[in-house]
Amino acid sequence: MDRTTRRTGAALRRAPDTAAAPPRERERAALHDRAARVLETNWTGTSTVPSRTLYPHQWSWDSAFVAIGSRHVSPLRAQLELETLFAAQWGDGRVPHIVFNPSVPLDAYFPSPDFWRSSTSGRAAGAPRAVQTSGIVQPPVHALAAWLVHRADPGLSRSRSFLARIHPKLAAWHRYLLHRRDLGGGGLASVIHPWEQGMDNSPCWDAPLSRIAPTPARAFRRADLEHGAPDDRPTDLDYGRYVRLATDYRDGQYADGQGEFAVEDPSFNALLIASEHALARIACELGATGTARHDRAERLTAALVERLWDPATGMFFCRDLRATDSPHTSRAPGHDMSRTTTRQTSPPALIPEYGVSGLIPLILPTLPRHVTAGLLRTARGPRFGLGTAVRLVPSYDLTGPAFDPHRYWRGPAWFNTNWLIERGLRLHGEHDEAERLRTALLGTALDTAFAEYVDPYTGRGCGARGFAWSAALALDLLQEPRERHEGGTWG
User: Best label site of 158, 205, 275, 384, fewest CB within 10 Å?
Assistant: First the structure.
């Protein structure tokens, strides 16, 4: 085992720009065992909950990240994680963002199954009758996860026909996103609710959400405030808007394209593109050609650059597809913010907020070189402080007016986004910087008992402890980099 693989323990707790010495082997083993225990604690028998307290059901992209990590402990359990999720797939191909555990009381989480009414309101879209789910989706990390899980134990995977069984479900999931969710007509998938993108209350959503009339706070009860500090969670106003959007979508029988919120997001689409590359590899493993999938991924990469890249700032931004529906303050990225004017924008406007979502396209193998260079400059600059100002990359612009190091996605650092950035850095040859970030991630996981998210400056843990994807991704990061990338994971 090489020295870089064993960088855990006390050495991992140093600042991101400090060289770490290799710790003793038992420290690495201790971190592995603690992470594995978190996954064991959160395992229900068929899937993994993100947290036993705050999130007592199965979440879509959480399960994908959990499968990526748990493949190092039990490839069979990693396969079951994905199979359980896709057993709740709707007839139109969507993979719901929550699969509800019927043994959990209704008041343990809001919105609960009786809010979503999936089996009735979702009937026209093919919602399953045997299980209750939400009606919205989350980022499509699943094909990536399926390919990595297969590579962890190809013999087991082939003996169980894992890829053969899950491939058509993954293909249907991608068809749904590429056809039903191309609301802007430019080839990219749109999210119709902030929860779908996964970064729930990011400042990137403030402008499009400002047009949504909120459901009064007295009309619902937030179970999340029983488990987390109110100052760290979304506000009641934000939550009221989330509830309004979800209510309207449900009452519209979960038909796409009718709502007041529609945004093309860079990370959601980058993950879709990376998953298209993974689906191409899955097709080849099953004896078909992956050429069409790779070609589609390259076309989507070109569309991502054309529609969401701003060369003046070196950043990918979200595009608000409903911005022309009503007057609002339009600020062109890269321009003097003191010269804003209230006007209708045409075409739909980029949202000039620097969220970590705009860095995630680093995971794409065919990103143009000048775009990659611009993203790296932005990541290393004062807005994100990669390798200099922070321990981990924040979820939002360090210099932005809405930055808060503790309030959910408005500044704290998250393990999954930093894991993706670490992969992107390695993909584009930035191995030293990737190794420093890997070291910082492992040290932070150890220090915080696998916190849900952390202060990007200090690494202090926030939210739930024993968080499933934090533990799972620590398990993945403990592996030697060349083993984690075996099989050309991203392309």
Answer: 158
Q: List beta partners, residue 350.
A: 319
Give the CA count within 13 Å in the CB-facing half-sphere of 469.
21
Single out the catalytic residue among 200, 232, 320, 430. Answer: 200
pLDDT of residue 332: 37
Compute CA distances 457 → 73, 116, 411, whole Å. 31, 38, 10
pLDDT score recorded for residue 79: 98
Provide the CB-side half-sphere exposure for 13 (13 A, CA): 11
Burial class (CB in 10 A: 0-12, 13-18, 19+), 146: buried
Q: What are residue 263's DSSP bridge partners?
A: 191, 320
3 state DSSP class of 351: strand
Task: Compute how many other C-beta atoms are within 10 angstroms of the C-beta atom of residue 479.
Answer: 16
Query: Beta-strand (E) ranges in 290-340?
Result: 309-310, 315-316, 318-320, 328-330
pLDDT value of position 485: 59
Which of 238, 265, 430, 452 is an active site residue? 452
Q: What is the rounded CA–CA span in Å between residue 120 and residue 118?
A: 5
> What pLDDT score was predicted for residue 468?
98
Bridge partners (DSSP) listed for residue 355: 396
Tokens 């169980």 map to which residue? Answer: 160
Distances 484 to 29, 107, 144, 312 between C-alpha atoms, Å: 18, 40, 12, 35
Q: What is the pLDDT of residue 345?
A: 37
Strand-pair partners of 343:
328
> Alpha-carbon Rg of the chain, whole angstroms?
21
Rounded to the nearest 5°, which phi and psi values hold at 221? -120, 120
How many CB atoms within 10 Å of residue 488?
12
Among this protein's residues, is 285 annotated catalytic?
A: no
Type of residue found at 158: R
- Give percent helix, percent strand, percent coil of the chain, each to the nearest 5: 50, 10, 45
471, 57 in Cβ contact below 8 A?
no
How far apart (Å, rounded) are the C-alpha atoms in residues 41 and 26?
22
Let me know how long the chain is. 491
Does residue 452 have an active-site annotation? Answer: yes
> How far is residue 183's CA from residue 399's CA, in Å, rounded to a whole number?
32
Task: Provide the token pair at 469.
Answer: 């994807």
Please give the Cα distance from 322 to 107 (Å, whole number). Answer: 34
Which residues lie below 8 Å from residue 462, measured CB to CB, with a gap of 6+? 232, 406, 412, 451, 452, 453, 454, 455
Half-sphere exposure of 23 (CA within 13 A, CB side): 22
Residue numbers of the chain with a pLDDT score lower than 70: 1-24, 222-233, 324-347, 482-491
